[in-house]
Amino acid sequence: MSVRHALLALLSEGPKYGLQLREEFEARTGEVWPLNVGQVYTTLQRLERDGLVESDDEAASGPQNSFRITAEGTQELDGWLRTPPDLASPPRDELVIKILIAVRLPGADVHEVIQAHRRYLVELMQQWTRLKEEEGDVDLGLALVIDAEVYRLDSVVRWLDTADGRLKRAASQPPAPAKTAAPQIRRRAGVRR
């Protein structure tokens, strides 16, 4: 999450104080990502250092200053909004790594590992769905966060189901000679070595 760019976006609406930025950030993101006011001021100092924001009152530095975005900050914000995040490489997902390690770990019951995580994820999905029913229509930001979480958790559950099925099929077939993925396939998928 880019707090830096979120603050630039809020400042693009006009000058604001640090505390005001923290409150608006939390309100607009459904209050699911608490933001420490110290982090806000640290980020503002870095943005000011980089020439992306400036204090309205440079003579009296401190937390009571309001900040405004500069032309360079507006350009940075515009670039961030239009640039897709780097999704070309698979993320280092702890659950994926855990399953991959468990597959080759002697004595590990991979099916049980998968099912334990699946149960937990389904419970999380149910919690988010209940929250959506109770508060999803109240706050647009929260509703969007809930949708994203439900879809994300659903995709992980589907991956676990697919992995479980693949492992069961593999266990029922005779072992094939080990192969390594062709280098061009790894490059196409953005896999780093």
UniProtKB/TrEMBL annotation:
Transcription regulator PadR C-terminal domain boundaries: 92-167
Transmembrane segments: none
InterPro entries: Tscrpt_reg_PadR_C, Tscrpt_reg_PadR_N, WH-like_DNA-bd_sf, WH_DNA-bd_sf
Region (Disordered): 168-193
Coiled coil stretches, renumbered: none
Span of domain Transcription regulator PadR N-terminal: 7-77
Feature: compositional bias, Low complexity: 170-183
Record protein name field: Transcriptional regulator
Organism in which the protein naturally occurs: Phytohabitans houttuyneae
Upper lineage: Bacteria, Bacillati, Actinomycetota, Actinomycetes, Micromonosporales
